[in-house]
Amino acid sequence: MKQVGVKRFSFSRIFMYLFLTLASLFSIFPFYWMFVMATRPSAAYNSIPPTLTPGNMLVENFKKVLNQIDFFGSMWNSVVLCTIVTVVVLFISSLAGFAFAKFKFPGKNALFIAILVTMIIPPQLGLIPQYLIIAKAGLLDTLQGVMILFFLNPLGIFLMRQYISESVPDELIEAAKIDGATNFKIYRKVVLPIILPAFATLGIIVFTATWGEFLWQFTVLRDPEMYTIQVALASLNNTFKVDFGMLLSGVFWATIPLVIIFLLFNKLFIASITEGSVKS
C-alpha cells in the first residue's frame, strides 16, 4: 500500500512539474518570438510556416529605430515617469492602507468601498474631463501632466490595507504608542520594515502598468522631446508600410527595463506571495 502511495505521489509531482514547464514555455514564447522577429527582416513577420530561429539583423534593425526616433531620450522619460509614479503610489497607498487597517474614523468603511468602486470604472470614461483639467492647468506636453493621474491607485490601497491588517500585529502599534511614538513614526519605524515584500509586489505591478500604459500618454504628449517609449514606438507605425523587424526590435529593447526591475525585486515579490500562502 505504501508503494502505491509513493507511486501516486510521484506521478502527481511529475504531472505538476510537466504542467508548470509547459505553462512557463507558453509564457516565455511571445517574448522569444518578439526577439526572433527583431533579428529578422520585415518579410519574416508574415512567413508561413512562421520563423522560429533568430537571424542576424538585431543591430541593423535597432539602428533603423535610432534613425527614426529618439529612443534613449524616450526611454529616459519612461524611466523617470514610472519611477516617480511608483514611489508616490507606494507612499500614498501604504499610508492609506495603514489608516484603513489600523485606525477607526467616521465613514471609514464607506470611503474604502468608494475607493474600490473606482476600480470598476473604465478609464476611457474620464479621458475627456481629465484632459480638460490637465490642459487648464497648463500641464500638456509634460511628464507631470501624465504622472499626476496615476498617483492615486485604488488597487494599491486595497493591497496595502489587506497586507497591513494581516501582517502588522496590533500589539506592536500599541506598544509604540505607549512609548510615545507618533502615528507617522509608527508607520516609518514599525510598519514599513514589515511590509517590504508587499512594497516589492506593488512596486512591480505599478511600474509595469505605468510603463505599458499608452492611451493617456498618447493623449497628453505631443512634443517628440517629451515622448515616452510607448508613444515613440507608436510613431514608428504611422506609415503605410510597417517595418516589423524595426518595430519589434524597438519593442524588444524597450522590454529590457521591465525584466531588470523584476530580477532586482523578485526575491521580495516571491516572499510576499509565499507569506500570503502560508497565512492562508
Written overview of the protein:
Keywords: Cell membrane, Membrane, Transmembrane, Transmembrane helix, Transport. The chain crosses the membrane at residues 14-35, 75-98, 110-133, 139-159, 190-211, 244-265. This is ABC transmembrane type-1 domain-containing protein. The protein is an all-alpha fold. It has a domain at 69-235: MetI-like fold, CATH 1.10.3720. Helices cover 74% and strands 0% of the residues. It contains 13 helices and no strands. The protein has helices at 2-38, 58-68, 71-102, 108-117, 127-136, 143-147, 154-167, 170-178, 183-194, 196-212, 215-220, 229-235, 244-279. The longest helix is centred in the first third of the chain and has 37 residues, at 2-38. It is globular and about 70 Å long. The two termini are 32 Å apart. Residues 276-280 have low confidence and may be disordered.
Helices, strands, pairings?
Layout: H1 2-38, H2 58-68, H3 71-102, H4 108-117, H5 127-136, H6 143-147, H7 154-167, H8 170-178, H9 183-194, H10 196-212, H11 215-220, H12 229-235, H13 244-279
Helix pairs in contact: 1-13, 2-13, 3-7, 3-10, 3-12, 7-10, 10-13
Summarize the structure.
The chain has 280 residues and is mostly helical.
Q: CATH first level of the domain at 69-235: which class?
A: Mainly Alpha
Radius of gyration: 24 Å
Number of helices: 13
Helix content: over 70%
Spell the H/E element sequence: HHHHHHHHHHHHH
Give me the CATH fold name of the domain at 69-235: MetI-like fold
Q: How many strand segments? A: 0
Average pLDDT metric: 86
Shape verdict: globular
| N→C terminal distance | 32 Å
Largest sheet: none
CATH architecture of the domain at 69-235: Orthogonal Bundle
List low-pLDDT spans: 276-280
Q: CATH superfamily of the domain at 69-235, called what?
A: MetI-like
Secondary structure category: mainly alpha
Query: Into which percentage range does the β-strand content fall?
Result: under 5%
Main location: membrane
Organism: Caldibacillus thermoamylovorans
Keywords: Cell membrane, Membrane, Transmembrane, Transmembrane helix, Transport
Family: Belongs to the binding-protein-dependent transport system permease family.
